[in-house]
Amino acid sequence: MADKVYVIDTNIVLQNIQHVKNLSEDGKNIVVIPETVLIELEDKKRQTDELGFQAREFARFLAESKVKEVDISGNYRVVKLYNENYNIHLMSKTEYDSDIEARHIAESNDKRIIEIADAARNYYKGQKVIFVSIDIYARMFGLFKNLKTESLREDRSEVPRAQFLKNVELDSSFFNTLENMNIKKIDPEYNIENFCYEFVSNDGNKAYALIHKERILPLSEDDFKGLKIKPVNTRQRFFMKAILSNLYNILVIDAKAGSGKTLIAVASAMRLIDKGLYDKIVYVRNSIESLDKGADVGFLSGNDEKFRIYNMALYDTLEFISKRMLKKTENKESVESINSKITEMMEKYRIEKLWPGEARGRTLSDAVVILDEWQNSSENTTQLILSRLDNSCIAIVIGSNRQIDNLYLNKYNNGLTSLLKLTLHEHEELSMFAIDLQKAVRGKFAEFSERVYENKKQRLS
């Protein structure tokens, strides 16, 4: 007899198929997949976004499973599968109490999933049956049926509160001798997540430095000479210096809207290519549909058009850089001049646009890989992309946990957060860097919206 029987909602699979395996606990528990969940996953697997990827991953998992038993008894139909140590049961009813209404299909599906969870109590008599969903409304409907309900442990985990930038008092006489010094000589309380330092002297002088393998790398204005795009605040300087140093394999940036994260990433990547360190830029962004955008990529024809709306951040960045690069002539703002410069940059820096669905089976080499809006990607997608990179690549992961559009992810379990957590530890395979960009530099509208709306959210939370 199994320890527990978990009946799972569709969102558990769409968030990460690994949840199914975790709930199984190497076969100790039974994981029940309601028929309606299969129908919803079947519908999602055609999508070209993160959700479609997760649905297809689950389809592969089912294809690798073997049928152990098919039980047809009374109103229940149960197909019992096993895959390695996982016990997966597919369950349906011959008759449902809830009718399918085309106008309220999502609500109808939710009710049928709850029906299966309720039916499971009768089918698995004497065993502990638990309905699992990340949807609070679904769990409330489950409680109406007197079901035991749970969310996921990941929903109750912590977002890392690391001190990426540390302030230390230091006599200014040391400022000229910081190069390559061991940080522990100055700060015995140094921790692995202290990637950046601001040294402040009693006389008001300041010095800034990165830390790589406990060695101090001072920042100077010479670091940004000749760049058309230069950092405008201290945290941007740290971010750009970290990229240009080419010492870190993965850089993870959690940034507010309008903080310049994409601009700094792309401009720095171009400089690395100018130096001959890499051959191309690969821009990866998940095609998650924001409810505010109201755009359904499923109805757009052609790949370029389909993903154009999700690459607008890249195009806006290239347009901004183009304007900076164009000479001050009457034509500098003309559409033709700007488009010509963008095309020139796309060719010169071999800028490729990649969505996660295209990554499987590929190997990326000699590339600066920019993973943008990564708060909308799961750990599975993060693993998929990073596993495509060979040793000649550098990965720049940028996003904002304040702007999560993926309804199946939250600030505790998305790909950006998972990588931020990893920066708190040393890794023998590669070197990591992290910082948060806290200041909006886009202009008065970004500053206004941040002050009014973001601060309001914080007061209410």
Under CATH at level 1, the class of the largest domain stands as Alpha Beta
Q: Determine Rg (CA atoms, Å).
A: 26 Å
Task: Round the mean pLDDT to the nearest integer and report it.
Answer: 87
Largest sheet: 7 strands, mixed
What is the CATH T-level topology of the largest domain?
A: Rossmann fold
- Give me the CATH superfamily of the largest domain: P-loop containing nucleotide triphosphate hydrolases
Number of helical stretches of at least 4 residues: 15
Compute the number of structural domains. 3
- From the N-terminal CA to the C-terminal CA, the straight-line distance is 43 Å
So what's the overall shape? elongated
Quick structural overview:
The chain has 461 residues and is α/β, with parallel strands linked by helices. Helices cover 35% and strands 21% of the residues.
Q: Strands, helices and their partners?
A:
Blueprint: E1 4-8, H1 10-15, H2 18-24, E2 30-34, H3 35-44, H4 50-63, E3 66-73, E4 76-83, E5 86-93, H5 105-123, E6 128-132, H6 136-144, E7 148-150, E8 165-169, H7 183-186, E9 196-200, E10 206-212, E11 215-218, H8 234-245, E12 250-255, H9 261-274, E13 280-285, H10 303-308, H11 312-325, H12 335-348, E14 351-354, E15 367-372, H13 379-386, E16 394-399, H14 415-422, E17 432-437, H15 444-460
Parallel strand pairs: 1-2, 1-6, 2-5, 6-7, 8-9, 12-16, 12-17, 13-14, 13-15, 15-16
Antiparallel strand pairs: 3-4, 4-5, 9-10, 10-11
Helix pairs in contact: 3-5, 8-9, 9-11, 11-12
